[in-house]
Design a protein that fits this description.
- This protein has helices at 6-30, 36-62, 69-86, 92-118, 123-141, 187-206, 208-218, 220-225, 230-253, 266-279, 284-300, 308-323, 326-338, 345-350; strands at residues 145-149, 152-156, 169-173.
- It is globular.
- Strands 2-1-3 form a 3-stranded antiparallel beta sheet, with helices on one face.
- Helix 6 (187-206) runs antiparallel to helix 9 (230-253).
- With 356 residues, it is mostly helical.
Amino acid sequence: MKKLSKTTRSNLITYAIVVIAFLAVQGMDAAGRVSSSLRGQLVPICVYICMAVSLNLTVGILGELSLGHAGFMSVGAFTGVIVSMSLSFLPGAVRLLLAIVVGGMMAALAGFIVGVPVLRLQGDYLAIVTLAFGEIIKNLLNNIYVGVDGRGLHFSGKDAASLGLQEGTVLINGPMGAVGIQKQSTFLAGFLLVLLVLTVTLNLIRSRSGRAIMAVRDNRIAAESVGINVTKYKLMAFVTSASMAGMSGALYALNYSSVLPKKFDFNTSILVLVFVVLGGMGNIRGSIIAATVLTILPEALRAVNDYRMLLYAIVLILVMLVSHNPVLENTWNQVKGRLAFWKKPEETRKGGGIDG
């Protein structure tokens, strides 16, 4: 029987962690051992996992710093709200699916429009432009009014009164955001979206295109010299990342009764970037764990409310120091080298791989 490669085993372990966590939470919830606060965090945890994994595709795999990821999330969020509330005659599950799909498509379109000119930049310049994009999207949403009635959708950049609705409903009310949303997101939908994002990301990384993307990251000039179309592969990673952020945004928006544009500001982009950095850039499994732990941690520290954010900041600093300490890394590698079950003989001969 043919043995699985190290890459395949690593991917299966990543999937297994997600599936086991889902089943464990479902079992605990059925037994009444999940608090109401944790139950309310289940969908946001799935959303932030998807956001972290998608941003890791840009920051860790492509090697470009993006500070406007929340902008793509907001495009998917408000597109998903419009789709869901406009199709109120359909079953909830169908509306949620359509909202996620259309939200991802619109975010991918936004990623393409932004990526074509922006990805010609590098380093700090790219980070500044993506930051500006996120703020531009937020301010545009603050000045957009959308309504629906028997005649269809109505758009305005002035106010809700100028929509001219005839016994219709205002879907997006400028700075007041989307109101009156029917909650449709579920933990099961979040779990399935996480699996989808993981499947797309891991398969892209291991594909020929993924190897080209990592070649561009490692040495752009060398990649160009062997015929790799740098712009094409950078745009591929950027648009794929944006589409997954848009799908996450749609799931997030349909988990609440109202969503404000200011929720998707610079701070949200930085929060997702923190998940990626603490989990390890290029480490998909680390992004999953970091997003889960750091989403739960502020709520877990609510018992010491006066010092909650101080303790949260201290934990972030300690994790950063520990995870990027060369002495601890060398010690851990020595320990793994002495344990036979960490490194099998065939792995020693073939060498290491990229962690999933």
